[in-house]
Amino acid sequence: MSLESTLKKRNLTTYKLVKMRKQLILLALILPFVSLAQQTLTLDECFDLVAKNYPLVKQSELIENQSRLAIEAINKDKLPKLNVNAQATYQSDVTSLPIQLPNLRLEPPNKDQYRATLDANQLIYNGGMIDATSKVKEAISKVNQQQVEVNLYTLKNQVNQLYLSVLLLQENHNLLTAKEKQLNARLEEVKAGVKYGALLASSEQVLHAELLKIRQQFIELDFNKSALIKRLSLLIGKELSADVNLTLPVVIMSGVESARPELQLFDLQKEQVAYASKLISKSNLPKLNAFAQGGYGNPGLNMLDNSFNTFYMAGLKMNWNVFDWNKTKTEKQSLEINKQIIDSQKETFELNNDLELINLQSEIDKIKDLISTDNEIISIRESILKTAESQLKNGIITASAYITEFTNLYESKSQMNVHETQLLLNKIQYQITKGTYYKN
After folding, report:
1. DSSP state of 1
2. Among 247, 275, 387, 424, whose CB has the most other CB atoms within 10 angstroms?
3. Closest by alpha carbon to 417, among 362, 386, 374?
């Protein structure tokens, strides 16, 4: 091999390496933008995001903290209580003996008296009132937490409608792109026909006008999609690009029993009533406390000693309300009525939910039949358009007649897109209404 050929081979190799390096650098620069342009989002991700980012979610933590602090405060009643008391009084009269005893001089107490004490009280038994009160607070917290879950669950329908509205526009955009591509192909054929005098120049103008209409439709679609994406972005708390790609959800109709969060809410409300009833039952049980008092005053415990003295006392105190005029019984009856009201609300909810499910199932069955007819219509329209294309090439029909058949076909396809999206919307809404929507 000559020196010249060796140098040429080395130069070629170097050129290829440099070219490859440039391509890799260019690819590295482009990839981030490509990945950004191809932002994708699923319906399940939207549900997760709204459950994490919606402002109402903050209430869950606040309710939990509030319940913890309330129970902590209630349990402090088990600890001893210390009170410092002080008083100075002047009274108009004091106790005195109306007779004089021989060899005994009794001085009456001073009309100005002073006393300072430190009192300690320790609960020994109160019938379990503290624990019962804590249970009621826990039950109230659970009810409030579940109410937040119910409110968040209702957002799923809003997310579903927005998501599928964007998805419909996305599918229509793809359909419009295919329509534009096919019309451009016909335009090239018509141009050739006009050039060789086989077709009138007006045929080309008609197709140009139809392409301009398609551009207008693109503009309208883009603006509508942008507005919906902004609403969806605000609802789920995540910034979405204008060209975000929404993936098509796969829905599996489940025969599982209803699991709506409202049903659990009703059960928790009844549980709260049950704990409140137990608390009322314990209110009439005897209560036992130990107490101690130490003090300094004039007089002390000895009323006959008219001077400042220290003193103390200790003991037990019991309190038992043996008769409350049937107050406890009346309060329990009121709670029982409350429980019946909750049962009535639950029955009403289940009835309305079942009615909604029947309506949705009817809508699903209707749309399935419409889609079946859509397929037949599209098949016929495609056959008609194929004939019209041949006739347009041969100058048998005008471009306007061709556009009519062309538009008919794509309107049928667009209608099928609407029906398919409606079917998906109703299927997901059925699962949400039933409370059995699960991630795929």
Report:
1. -
2. 424
3. 374
